[in-house]
């Protein structure tokens, strides 16, 4: 593979690796340092991690705006410092009085537009420093609630584990939603605490587990043009319009959302967004 090729790599991340570990492995495999990812997965988590190589790294900021789907296991009756199984236990409580119906009723409250306080060990920056690093340094971190959207949420497959109650949680949500925080908040609402014991991301936008690679030594790139067509609405331009795009001009183009535009030969040129009903402006130009 040429180190100058641009495109996406869709990885099925194994547990125990950080997202940065995956980026480092792919950098070595493709022979370039220009590799980034669209949305961190915690070391404990597995599943879809979308990486951009070379010019495709500039697509990632736009891909992060898409929705994601997850399957998780929540344990009720135990809260942890990280809201997942890797943290220290901060409280325990019996769940013998908690019924499946009670859990389902609370879970339903998290459907739709909600305000969510991210987990304290998130990668969110606080005064220029990652929140998780502040926690590691012994600081108290209090993050502000942020608006997120949970499009679908469902609980099922309940099972008792001693004093604990475990259940499976499936979520389709906007980017920026913390599944660990959902587990924490559901447990808090039930008065017994909660945390994640497993998390698997099934999709990021149109990219899912089907076709995702587990081989980080020999990766195949999805070419940037194909990735753009899969991820955005697309418009094929004529030669004159393509020349305008190359110098960053607005286009007389009727679009309703962020759109990928292509030269007559199929080359991916740029992402455009609507200004009004008949004019579009460049969001990111990928050619000179």
Task: Label this structure with key terms.
288 residues, alpha+beta, Pseudouridine synthase, Archaeosine Trna-guanine Transglycosylase, Chain: A, domain 4, 20% helix, tRNA pseudouridine(55) synthase activity, tRNA pseudouridine synthase B, PUA-like_sf, tRNA processing, PUA_sf
Q: Any idea of the CATH class of the largest domain?
A: Alpha Beta
Shape: elongated
* Largest beta-sheet characterization: 10 strands, mixed
- State the fourth-level CATH superfamily of the largest domain: Pseudouridine synthase
Q: What does the radius of gyration come to?
A: 21 Å
Structural class estimated from helices and strands: alpha+beta
Total count of strands: 18
The tally of structural domains comes to: 3
> Could you name the ranges where pLDDT drops below 50 across 5 or more consecutive residues?
none
Strand content: 35-45%
Give, in order, the helices and strands.
EHEEHEEEHEEEHEEHEEEHEHEEE
Pfam family, one: TruB_N
Organism: Nocardioides daedukensis
EC number: 5.4.99.25
Family: Belongs to the pseudouridine synthase TruB family. Type 1 subfamily.
Give a verbal description of the structure.
It comes from Nocardioides daedukensis. This is tRNA pseudouridine synthase B. Belongs to the pseudouridine synthase TruB family. Type 1 subfamily. It catalyses: uridine(55) in tRNA = pseudouridine(55) in tRNA. By secondary structure, the protein is of the alpha+beta class. It folds into 3 domains: 7-65 and 205-225, 2-Layer Sandwich (Pseudouridine synthase), CATH 3.30.2350; 68-200, Pseudouridine synthase; 232-285, PUA domain (Archaeosine Trna-guanine Transglycosylase, Chain: A, domain 4), CATH 2.30.130.10. The protein has 7 helices and 18 strands. The chain has helices spanning 19-30, 60-63, 100-108, 131-136, 179-189, 224-231, 239-246, and strands spanning 7-13, 35-37, 46-53, 68-76, 78-80, 89-92, 112-116, 125-126, 129-130, 146-161, 164-173, 194-204, 207-208, 222-223, 233-236, 259-262, 268-274, 280-285. Strands 1, 2, 3, 4, 7, 10, 11, 12, 13 and 14 form a 10-stranded mixed β-sheet that branches. A 4-stranded mixed β-sheet has the order 15-16-17-18, with helices on both faces. Strand 5 and strand 6 form a beta hairpin. The longest helix has 12 residues, at 19-30.
């Amino acid at each position: 593979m040429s180190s100058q090729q641009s495109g996406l790599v869709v990885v099925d991340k194994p547990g125990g690796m950080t997202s940065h570990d995956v980026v480092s492995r792919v950098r070595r495999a493709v022979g370039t340092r220009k590799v980034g990812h669209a949305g961190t997965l915690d070391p404990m988590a597995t599943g879809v991690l979308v990486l951009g190589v070379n010019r495709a790294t500039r697509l990632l900021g736009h891909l992060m705006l898409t929705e994601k789907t997850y399957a998780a296991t929540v344990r009720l009756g135990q809260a942890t410092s990280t809201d997942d199984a890797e943290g220290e236990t901060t409280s325990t409580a019996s769940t013998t009085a908690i019924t499946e119906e009670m859990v389902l009723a609370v879970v339903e409250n998290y459907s739709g537009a909600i305000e969510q306080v991210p987990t304290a060990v998130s990668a969110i920056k606080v005064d220029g420093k990652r929140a998780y690093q502040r926690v590691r340094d012994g600081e108290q971190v209090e993050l502000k609630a942020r608006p997120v959207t949970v499009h679908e949420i469902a609980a099922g497959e309940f099972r008792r584990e001693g004093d604990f109650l475990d259940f499976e949680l499936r979520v389709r949500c906007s980017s920026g939603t913390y599944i660990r925080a959902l587990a924490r908040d559901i447990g808090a609402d039930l008065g017994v605490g909660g945390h994640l014991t497993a998390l698997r991301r099934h999709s990021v936008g149109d990219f899912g587990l089907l076709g995702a690679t587990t081989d980080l030594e020999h990766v195949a790139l999805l070419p940037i043009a194909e990735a753009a067509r899969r991820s955005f609405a697309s418009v094929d331009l004529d030669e004159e319009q393509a020349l305008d795009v190359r110098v960053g001009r607005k286009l007389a183009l009727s679009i309703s959302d962020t759109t990928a535009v292509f030269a007559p030969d199929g080359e991916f040129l740029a992402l455009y967004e609507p200004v009004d009903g008949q004019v579009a402006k460049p969001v990111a130009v990928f050619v000179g």
